[in-house]
Amino acid sequence: MNIIYIHGLDSDANSTKGILLESYCQQHHADINVYRPDLNSAPEQVFEQLVKLVTALNGKDKTVLIGSSLGGYFSTLVSNHTGCAALLLNPSTQPHVTLQRFAHELLLNSDSDELPENQIFHTTAGGWNIIPADLQWFADHQLVSINYPHKIAVLLKEDDELLNAELSKDFYQTQGATVTVQAGGDHRFSDFDKQLPMVIDILQDLIRV
Fold first, then answer.
1. Which of 64, 68, 158, 200 has a C-alpha 20 to 30 A away from that of 84?
2. 164-190: b or e for each residue (b if 16 or more CB lie within 10 Å)?
């Protein structure tokens, strides 16, 4: 099995959860390959990069995605496009809305009601400069349906401080995906290391479908 770990907004290829996942598989599942691509690029480039990676790996072994936060959004898009199974951790469902917070912060400190087209809203920890065209891309590629709901599993933390867990639950459940809401927790899934045995079980179930 191949696992592609898709990190969130302010992260990179060396994300904590990605490294924990790879280390766990090396110790307990030598037959599982973990890929941790760096996705600090414009969203259209991220989507193309992931589709190419899934396509390249699928011919060799079954491939699944794990997407965290914004990575959950991209995982859903890629699954819709390729039929690849995916496990989503506190996924973002409306980045065209939630990422507007960066634009709002700039407008509060600006004398203008509009920002230039090349205005950088936010630079991620991994070096992606978010500009208006990126928000427009997200708006043009909203999640409105799930093409392969039987291949999607979602883990949500009830006390996610950044994204609305209820919104994600309603969307994915309505689409027929399997959704598990865990009490407490946080957006970063700080107890991810303790959940890795269950995570692998979920992924193995998804590729049997």
1. 158
2. ebeebbebbeebebbbebeeebebbbe
